[in-house]
């Protein structure tokens, strides 16, 4: 399975973006699907995850603003980002995790929040 993330761009503070991550195969068998982000000079940090049964979790800084979802029929994971702040600026990566031997990353998509 390969992952293709898209939807990044330049947005003003307070704006919204939706990032889709399309998989080349079924996403249902993965134990966890997630979005991570990496700002310049920083490590890659977890943003949000979703399980096959739809349980979600978020890092504190995005709770109430970001929503992770998935469309199993389309093999796509989404990250809806609202009320964007400058500190959300980063390269965003999608991830599909089954186990330590099968952990797949998509290419990143740049999100820049600036006026």
- Poorly predicted segments: none
Q: What value does the average pLDDT take?
A: 95
Helix content: under 10%
Give the biggest sheet.
Answer: 7 strands, mixed
Radius of gyration: 13 Å
The number of E-state strands comes to: 11
Shape: globular
With helices defined by DSSP (H or I, 4 residues minimum), what is the helix count?
0
Helix/strand class: mainly beta
Instruction: Report the portion of residues in β strands.
Output: over 45%
Order of helical and strand elements: EEEEEEEEEEE
Distance between the termini: 37 Å
Question: What attributes characterize this protein structure?
Answer:
115 residues, mainly beta, seven-stranded mixed β-sheet, 52% strand, globular
Question: Can you put this structure into words, describing what you see?
Answer:
- Helices cover 0% and strands 52% of the residues.
- It is mainly beta and 115 residues long.
- Strands 2, 4, 5, 6, 9, 10 and 11 form a seven-stranded mixed beta sheet that branches. Strands 1-3-8-7 form a four-stranded antiparallel beta sheet, with no helix packed on it.
- It is globular and about 40 Å long.
- The mean pLDDT is 95.
Short description:
The protein is an all-beta fold.
Give me the secondary-structure topology.
Elements: E1 3-5, E2 9-11, E3 17-23, E4 32-38, E5 45-50, E6 56-58, E7 66-71, E8 76-81, E9 90-99, E10 102-105, E11 109-113
Parallel strand pairs: 2-11
Antiparallel strand pairs: 1-3, 3-8, 4-5, 4-9, 5-6, 7-8, 9-10, 9-11
